[in-house]
Amino acid sequence: MARYDEDLHENPFFNTLVTKYNIMFSEAAEKKWMIFVPRADTVPRLKLNKNDFENHIFRQMAGDSPATLVSCNGKVCAISGDIMTTEQGYKEQRSVRILFEECFYNSRDESYQVFCLEQPLEGTLTDDAGAVVRMESLEDCCNYLWRDPVNDRVKKSVDSLLGFFKMERGGSLRTSMDAASAVYTRAIQEVLKIRRYQSMSQRNFCKLAVETYVMAGLHKKIFKEICFLVAHRDSTLNKISRNLTDIPPEHLGIKAQFRLSLPQAKKVLCQLNQLPSPLEKMNCLKQCVSVFTKMPLEGHFDALTADELLPILVYLVIISDIPNWHGNMAYINNFHFSRIGVEEFAYNVTSFEAAVEYISAESSQVWDYPTPTPPNVSYIRSTLTLTL
Fold it and tell me: What ranges in the chain are assigned the alpha helix state H?
């Protein structure tokens, strides 16, 4: 998905739906329909009407393709991946990117999904509705920072900082963090000499792009040292995982509908050690979890709950052949200096941490039970700590 985040509670479209059109909103929430909200700066300044909101509330068409949705006012859209395309009933065909999704709860404590869109499905955009900056990879960040040749001088200065960086062997995690943070801070100071990045609208993108570029440049010097610091923890985890390689997923209570997607999720997860920056590693974990959480959008299954997700991640950690899980978690948690998008990634990162801790904490005998008790998600997360 495009790299973007906002607080939906502050979105004018969502706020108007909740307050002025509360009956429509309440019905959608109680029936667990899908609500799509255009990002805040694309909502027209003109007064929104009932039809605007009906255009953005959907349910699946009974007996039709699970990726075909019908709106409250009878219009039809199709979803493919993270692209939503208007079809029947709309004034024009428009393909709109889904930026992110959030889980909300109705009066019966049942979950329903709210999706943020790159722009409205119909109507005119505001004058200041700029394109969403896509920032998910090192390549995206490099394109954002250095695509203009006039920035070459600043790039050379940042590259010089990376070239002079030295990592002391045998230091502490704090020493490594302070050293890398100092390079990141100096790099930010250099990049902010470029006038384009001085505006508040570009500041967060700039911070995340610089962090990703810097950490990718320091990765070979830092990541090996971080893994060395937590090697004893990874050794314990790997020993347990090797003994559990042949454990069947049904032994962990994983439903058949989710077992079908385990190979795809493993394929995504196996890229983790090839990614040099915290941003890319967090996106990898998010994509892995999305293999399962997006299934309700593409099929008629019940939504995945947190209690169902954790055993799935436990199984994936066991079969992933990743020898440095604790090293990766330490790197993600302690070297994401900009903290941009931390809320977006928190659920995925914490869920994987819980899976790693569950495996490490359990005696191998617990896995011999025919029907093991599902992991206690709340307890694990409340007691989860990273000790080096």
Answer: 12-19, 22-30, 50-54, 138-146, 152-164, 173-191, 200-229, 231-243, 256-259, 262-269, 278-293, 295-298, 306-319, 325-334, 342-361, 377-383
